[in-house]
Amino acid sequence: MEMTLSLARKLIEIGKEKATQDFGRPICIAIGDSSGELLTFDRMEGSPVRSIQISQQKAYTAIRMGIPTDIFLRRLKEDGLEISYYCDSKLTALPGGHPLKNKSGQVIGCVGISGLAASEDHAITEYIAGLIAEESL
């Protein structure tokens, strides 16, 4: 499986549906390519304006660091590091960003969600990452 615009748009719809179904609140969702650059984005009506940039930076961070953003946050805390040490102003350690790996483990893209509680954002990105890993779309 490879990331295409068609697949990215499908993931956007899956994420929005999951947010509505499980949490009853709107989100911003960003899907990036394997370098972390934005491929497609959607902002549900009523989602916070601040979540536009946050969702995109969560996706970017996940792919650039190669790990979900909740793990990045944990590592920063455990190692006593400041995020600024990475010299990249687009990084964020807010949970809700996830790299997307296909069944063979190849990184094909990334997803970032913002608008809910951090744990809820994370739950949706983890769900999407699982669908990609299983190639069950």
UniProtKB/TrEMBL annotation:
<dbReference type="InterPro" id="IPR038084">
    <property type="entry name" value="PduO/GlcC-like_sf"/>
</dbReference>
<protein>
    <submittedName>
        <fullName>Uncharacterized protein GlcG (DUF336 family)</fullName>
    </submittedName>
</protein>
<dbReference type="InterPro" id="IPR052517">
    <property type="entry name" value="GlcG_carb_metab_protein"/>
</dbReference>
<dbReference type="InterPro" id="IPR005624">
    <property type="entry name" value="PduO/GlcC-like"/>
</dbReference>
<dbReference type="Pfam" id="PF03928">
    <property type="entry name" value="HbpS-like"/>
</dbReference>
